[in-house]
Design brief:
The complex is a heterodimer of chains A (367) and B (175). Chain A is an alpha/beta fold and 367 residues long. Chain A has helices at residues 2-41, 100-106, 128-147, 159-170, 192-197, 205-212, 217-225, 231-241, 246-260, 267-279, 282-285, 317-320, 322-326, 348-363; strands at residues 53-59, 62-67, 79-82, 111-116, 152-157, 176-182, 214-215, 265-266, 289-290, 293-294, 304-309, 332-337. Chain B has 175 residues and is mostly helical. Among the domains of chain B are: 13-69; 71-100. The longest helix of chain B has 31 residues, at 37-67. Residues 125-162 and 164-175 of chain B have low confidence and may be disordered. Classes of the chains: A alpha/beta (367), B mainly alpha (175).
Amino acid sequence: MGAHNNNAKVKAVESDLSLRERLRGEINRSLQRGVKGLALLGAPPPAVGLTPKTLLHRRGTLSLYHYHAQSDEIYRVPILLVMASTNRGYIFDLAPGQSLIEFLLLRGYDVYVMDWNPPSPQERHLTLEHYTQDFIPDCIARVQQDSGEEDISLVGYCMGGLMSAVYVAQNPDGPVKNLVCFTTPVDFHKMELWTSWFDERALDVDRLVDAAGILQPETVIRFFEMLRPASGAAGQVRLWDNLWHDEFVKSYRVMDRWAAETLPLPGDYVRQIVKELFRKNALLDGSLRIGGQPVDLRNIRVPLLHVLAANDHIVPPACGQPLVALASSTDKEEVVLPGGHVSLVAGANAVKRMWPKLDQWLQTRST
Amino acid sequence: MALFSSFIPDPLNRVRQLVNTLEARLNALAHTGMQSEKVARTLNELATLSFALQHLLDSVSGAILRRLNLPSRQEVGDLALAMRRIEERLEQLLASAAQASPMAPERPRPARTRRPPAAALAAPAPTIANPAPATVPADPPRRPARTPAAPKARIASSARQPVAKRPRTRSARKA
């Protein structure tokens, strides 16, 4: 009986201590939230894209960068990363330690990146033809010239992956040696909300494009935000909750900056995507023609890796899965990793999962 | 300790859980609601109205700017484009000048002789029939090989100019 009483007393003291520790911790965090929150108000935008690089070529909306090697010996085949036309390429190079490019350089790859600048009003007529039959081959030629290598590993993210896949499908005999796609849409009807919004009964895309010329980034951001309308407010609550946590705030700010710097889109490119891809689902059924030539994904015969995100709300796995299913490559692999559309390529998930997977896949195919 | 802590609810943790639940439910609700044709039409009507208003505002502001003898957005855009062209040309000229200068030290290029670790070579290449596991542990850090770097001349590129291809080096390396 006496022992039982003693145990109860010990439990009560431990519980009391735990409560006091928790209270102390919460008060400390609240103070830090106030102080750091105030400091954040006047803070300059976070620095991004710090990995040393050289601008090899710039033409209107297109920029081609070469990142400086960070190891003494590199793989023979250079990598050309193709960014999605909607966003800045520094998602691959957010900050030291949070950079896919830095990771690849340290692992011994030679890295080139095709990045996009906001298109000028004169570039409103750009279409998939320009991206896949002008910009990509032009950059490939420049990478070949700069590296002295004929073979190239083409790595595309989202619409950059689609452009890369279209390029390889139309140029099956080279010079692309390996094709890697991240969250690349193929079956556009699996993007249910956008398919519904872009239906011809709902949206007069010609009127929209003719009036706008260039689709402003605010409109593009709104289309993305409307997929998850509650997430913006929830994100703000989470930011407030974690204001004391420097690493969280740093990651949040760089991602927030990246999302806010969404690019405007050429009107004719939007018109083509809405009509051909969302309405006709032409890439999936093989009826898509780019520059008068058919785009048949079955023509892809190079080694292919497609990485999809299990919780992707923009390109759900079902939307991207036909790529590997259709490609004729004998060496092909599809991987669905935990994470979302962006956290697949940048963030803690990416560091632990996607980057090592990419390295493991590329290293044996880059010699 | 954790057991006793659990007896006393953590109000902030409850709030966090509530935020997560609310976010998921609201997003799911919105997803279901916004799939309807009616919502899509309403969105389109709103977008059309917004563009009409924007057009009207542009016309009015254009008239005011002309009256004040100030440049329109189009004219400022044209100026920005001209500036960008000048910047691009400057970047190319500066890059060419830097390459051509005998004083400019050539950044050494590492040798393209890296080989994958032996373990990676031993493993069979995964295919769709034999997929790799979803999560792959990172390889242990490797010490960079001390191979002498082969300096390579860089050729400045310029806009809209055809690119001369270099001879392939793979065959030489294989040999």
